[in-house]
Amino acid sequence: MDQNVIAQDKLYIGGEWRRGRGADITSNFPADGSHNATLPGASLEDVDLAIERAQDAVNDPAWRKLLPHERATYLYRIAESIARHADRISHVQSRDTGKTLSETRALAMSASGTFRYMAAALETMEDTLTPPRGNYLTMSVYEPLGVTAGITPWNSPIASDAQKVAPALAAGNAILLKPSSWSPLVCLELARVIEEAGLPKGLFSTLPGAGSIVGERIVTHKAIKKVSFTGGTATGRDIARKAAGKLMPVSLELGGKSPTIVFADADLDLAVAGVMFGIFSSTGQSCIAGSRLFVERSIYDAFVAKLVAATERLKVGHPFEATTQVAPLIRPKHRDEVEDHVAKARADGGKVLTGGERPTGSDYKDGTYYRPTIIAGLGNDSRLCREEVFGPVLAVLPFDNEGDLIRQSNDNDYGLASGIYTRDFPKAWRIARSLDTGTVWINTYKQFSISTPFGGTKDSGVGREKGRDGIRAWMAQKSVYCDLSQAPHPWAKSAL
Ligand code: NDP
């Protein structure tokens, strides 16, 4: 094992570092295929142990009786600890996922911000006094659910982990985190900072291991009171079915096939930059990737030519190079899948305007690199416009008018995000309100704020994360009626 990549090959279970008793998980560096680490993953016994410890911890008065501002101090400390170790977290995440250091550093700082925000939201969260219909006081209060779980994908681990762990703890729960088997290392760094912050043992465990074994046990275990899942739509559907069997609430952040729209009156430099950032940053491995581009027909040829020229100037390179814009894909199997989507698009009559191949040269020979790719000539009903590629592949299509645009944009199973480029604000507002997506960006893309709720519609999921209400999504609502009359109920009076 490369000691520079992970400190030890143990998992954080029930507040202790233990050797996992499940199958080994191997992490390689996508830039050159070198070995990062092999980690014994969690077993079913490990899951059960984590749940047992979590039940004890969440019911312990030392945690259960904390007032919100007291609980918040742990989250503030975790936020500080992540920021203090951001360079190390970023390094491990770049080794694990192949993402650029600048991106993984930003993700670490975003995770820190998530803990800080949730701490502040917790301190200022209020229960509600509701209007009574009689001589009594009525209140709606929020209480922890108990032992909860987060299941996350490989593309932005520390940030998506924080979006589950921070609100779950803020709500007073315990949480088990199951990361993707493709990015098992970052969760150990999160465990280290949580331990450093002094969170009571047992409230947080991290369980890397196969989704079909470890993930399935977590979802179906009767002690788990909520699962928040981010990942593919098929997996999300499967989890929702199992959750329905035990009537457990789930939050599902799933895939996307997001439309980006460029009107003829747009600032074209701004639009080209935004379109490229929307699809090619993170090498397209983003649920919100703007992967279907609709361009108003009057500027279609000129805009696409400008976009292709700019795309060819993007720097494909090593994740540790400061100038790199497009880093390798997560692993060879995933590149094979991306290549398969491009081959199918070609077979369907698509014209590859740029990319559609691996870059050549000694710098690229051992890494899972793929060139940013733009494909024209396919209809909105083509496989390329329907299936999530999760790679740097953009489909471009013309549109004739607003009606045609809305029809095509919304004619898709997914509904996660969208982008609009125009100088006409009333038009942008009109289109934004007509798009069936959870988020709309106007003259920008992939901008995020922890205070703004995020989630999808249709096959992109159910539920919202982030925002002040993000904590309440991890709580049980309880109504309390308190009679003020201090008199026996009139219905029973005659019997007294
Ligand atoms: P998967 O759905 O394959 O996996 C996501 C997580 O679920 C992993 O931890 C995986 O574990 C686990 N898992 C797999 N099968 C099960 C199961 N039966 N029960 C419980 N857990 C299971 O997605 P990917 O990892 O391939 O991630 C990419 C997908 O995530 C894309 O579709 C993307 O759009 C989506 N995504 C959505 C986001 C959003 O916010 N809407 C954000 C980021 C990504 P294991 O790795 O061991 O299989």
Topology overview:
Elements: E1 11-13, E2 16-18, E3 24-28, E4 35-40, H1 44-59, H2 61-64, H3 68-84, H4 86-97, H5 101-123, E5 128-130, E6 136-144, E7 147-151, H6 157-170, E8 174-178, H7 186-196, E9 204-206, H8 211-220, E10 224-230, H9 233-245, E11 250-253, E12 259-262, H10 268-280, E13 292-296, H11 300-312, H12 332-347, E14 351-354, E15 373-376, H13 383-386, E16 393-399, H14 402-410, E17 414-415, E18 417-421, H15 425-434, E19 439-442, E20 457-458, E21 461-462, H16 469-472, E22 475-483, H17 490-493
The structure holds NADPH dihydro-nicotinamide-adenine-dinucleotide phosphate.
The site of NADPH dihydro-nicotinamide-adenine-dinucleotide phosphate has 32 residues, from helix 8 and helix 9.
General description of the model:
The chain is of the alpha/beta class and 496 residues long. The chain has 2 domains: 11-254 and 460-480, 3-Layer(aba) Sandwich (Aldehyde Dehydrogenase, Chain A, domain 1); 259-442, Aldehyde Dehydrogenase, Chain A, domain 2 (3-Layer(aba) Sandwich), CATH 3.40.309.10. The protein has helices at residues 44-59, 61-64, 68-84, 86-97, 101-123, 157-170, 186-196, 211-220, 233-245, 268-280, 300-312, 332-347, 383-386, 402-410, 425-434, 469-472, 490-493, and strands spanning 11-13, 16-18, 24-28, 35-40, 128-130, 136-144, 147-151, 174-178, 204-206, 224-230, 250-253, 259-262, 292-296, 351-354, 373-376, 393-399, 414-415, 417-421, 439-442, 457-458, 461-462, 475-483. Helix 4 (86-97) crosses helix 5 (101-123). The site of NADPH dihydro-nicotinamide-adenine-dinucleotide phosphate has 32 residues, from helix 8 and helix 9.
